[in-house]
Design goal:
247 residues, alpha/beta, TIM Barrel
Length: 247
C-alpha cells in the first residue's frame, strides 16, 4: 500500500467520512488505473500482520477533514482515473456511501478495499463501486485465529458471495505468512472460494512494513509462495496474480 500523507487534525461533522490518511497517487491499488487512496479510520478486527494498525482505532481525530480531502480530489480530476476507499475497514463508516457519490460526481471511478466485515453495508455501496478488492484472510474454519474476533468467518463468507453475485469487477486476495496461513489452510480456502465461483484471485507475501508484531516479522520468510504451491492455486482461477515480497 502506498505511504500515508497526513494533515493536521481538525473537527469533523458526523456526516463526513472519517479519513485516517491518504495517498496522492498509486498505480497498484486499482488494477489498470491511476488512483488516489483514501484511508478510512477504524476496523474491529485485529489481524496480527496488519500493515495499517494505526487505522484500527475509530475514536481518534481525523487526519484531514473530508471536505478538505474532497477539495484535494477535485483538483486531481482529469489527472487521476479513480479514488480507492481503503482502511481500516471503509464499510464501517456510515458516511461511505455519500463520500462515494461525491467522488463519482467529480468524474472518478470508485474502488473499494474491504475485508467484508459488514456484508449488508458492502451490498449497499456496491452499486456505486467500479472495482472491489476483497481480503480473504484464510480458510473459513481458521478465520478467528487471524482476526481475533469470534464468528468473523460468517461475515467474510457472506461478503464473498455478495461480491461474486454483484457483477462488479473484483479481486479476492490473501496475504500469506508461514506462521498463520499454512498450505493446508490455503488448499481449503482455494476449494471454498473457487467453489463459490471466484475467478480472480491473488496471493501476496507478508510484508513487514507497518506490522507491529515482532514475532511475525522474525518468523517471516521470503519466497513462501514458491512455484509449486502457486502453480496449484493458479490452476483453479481464470485470473491469478502472485505478489512476492521482493517483487
Amino acid at each position: 500500500m502506498s505511504a500515508l500523507i497526513s494533515s493536521s487534525a481538525g473537527t469533523m461533522a458526523d456526516r463526513e467520512l472519517k479519513v485516517g490518511g491518504y495517498a496522492r497517487f498509486t498505480s497498484t491499488d486499482y488494477p489498470g488505473e491511476l488512483a488516489a487512496v483514501v484511508f478510512v479510520q477504524g476496523c474491529p478486527w485485529r489481524c496480527g500482520y496488519c500493515h495499517n494498525p494505526h487505522l484500527q482505532p475509530r475514536d481518534v481525530a481525523p487526519a484531514i477533514a473530508w471536505r478538505d480531502m474532497l477539495a484535494f480530489l477535485a483538483g486531481r480530476a482529469g489527472l487521476l482515473d479513480a479514488v480507492v476507499f481503503s482502511g481500516g475497514e471503509p464499510t464501517l463508516d456510515p458516511a461511505l456511501e455519500d463520500a462515494m457519490r461525491s467522488v463519482k460526481a467529480l468524474g472518478f471511478k470508485v474502488g473499494l478495499h474491504t475485508a467484508g466485515i459488514y456484508p449488508e453495508r458492502l451490498k449497499q455501496v456496491l452499486p456505486l463501486t467500479d472495482w472491489v478488492g476483497l481480503d480473504i484472510k484464510t480458510s473459513f474454519e481458521a478465520y478467528d485465529e487471524i482476526t481475533g474476533v469470534s464468528g468473523s468467518a460468517q461475515a467474510a463468507r457472506t461478503a464473498a458471495r455478495i461480491v461474486i453475485e454483484s457483477g462488479v469487477p473484483y479481486e479476492f486476495r490473501t496475504t500469506i505468512h508461514p506462521k498463520l496461513t499454512t498450505p493446508r489452510h490455503l488448499a481449503a480456502l482455494v476449494e471454498q472460494i473457487s467453489g463459490m465461483g471466484c475467478e480472480t484471485y491473488a496471493l501476496q507475501d507478508f510484508r513487514s512494513v507497518g506490522c507491529r508484531s515482532q514475532d511475525l516479522i522474525n518468523s517471516a520468510s521470503e519466497g513462501v509462495l514458491h512455484g509449486e504451491l502457486a502453480g496449484q492455486v493458479k490452476s483453479r482461477f481464470r485470473q491469478f496474480t502472485l505478489r512476492q515480497a521482493n517483487g
